Amino acid sequence: MMQKAYETGEGLLHLVLLFLTQLYEISRMPKALHVTLTAPLLRLDTGMKQHYLPVPAEYAEAYDAAGVRRLILSVPPHQWRRALLGTKEGERLIMMGQPILRELGLRVGQSVTFSLHPDPDPDAIDLGEEFEAVLDQDAAAAKRFFSFTPGKQRSLAYYVTSAKREETRIKRALELAHKIKNRQLFSDLNPEE
């Protein structure tokens, strides 16, 4: 959403119209894609040992068939934008980061009732106040940032927004904008990796 408002300069009216359009799109989605499930919170045994909620194959297949790649995960009264992921063993899942676990007070093995539905704006990215302010002041960094894929934008924005302290978020936002503008990101320096 921010990118569209930033590029068009239409501001608040544009964002309100975009929001209303998204609500309309949600109302038109097949009800089969709006599900409520209860599942245990699990933890991957390999790699970084992330926590996750399993998604039954029939629902994952319905999302795949509809071309849905990002979902809204709801555990009332909270909502988060999440990706529907898969393991090499074929299991489908929704990752649950530490901030979500802390917010809900969840531990491995606990049963969780949650709802899933397609994200009406799958490319939406939470830039955070600090990073948004820096991009507003640095047109060259903003132009290059918004040329990245949504996944790369989301990853870079998460680097800024994941910091707990405001001072750290400001520092990361400034450093990241500098690296973006001057082509000093890891992917710029190591294009083959």
Describe it for me?
The protein has 193 residues and is an alpha+beta fold. It folds into three domains: 1-29; 30-118, Elongation Factor Tu (Ef-tu), domain 3; 125-187, no CATH class. The chain has helices spanning 2-8, 11-28, 57-65, 98-104, 128-137, 139-145, 150-161, 166-181, 186-189, and strands at residues 35-40, 42-43, 51-55, 70-75, 78-83, 85-86, 92-96, 111-118. The chain has a four-stranded antiparallel β-sheet, with no helix packed on it. It has a four-stranded antiparallel β-sheet with strand order 2-3-7-6. Helix 1 (2-8) packs across helix 2 (11-28), helix 6 packs across helix 8 and helix 7 runs antiparallel to helix 8 (166-181). The longest helix is centred in the first third of the chain and has 18 residues, at 11-28. The protein starts with a helix and ends with a helix.
In CATH, the topology of the largest domain is named: Elongation Factor Tu (Ef-tu), domain 3
Strand order of the largest sheet: 1-8-4-5
Major beta-sheet overview: 4 strands, antiparallel
Helix-strand string: HHEEEHEEEEHEHHHHH
The span between the termini is 30 Å
Based on secondary structure, the structural category is alpha+beta
Give a quick summary of the entry.
The protein has helices spanning 2-8, 11-28, 57-65, 98-104, 128-137, 139-145, 150-161, 166-181, 186-189; strands at residues 35-40, 42-43, 51-55, 70-75, 78-83, 85-86, 92-96, 111-118.
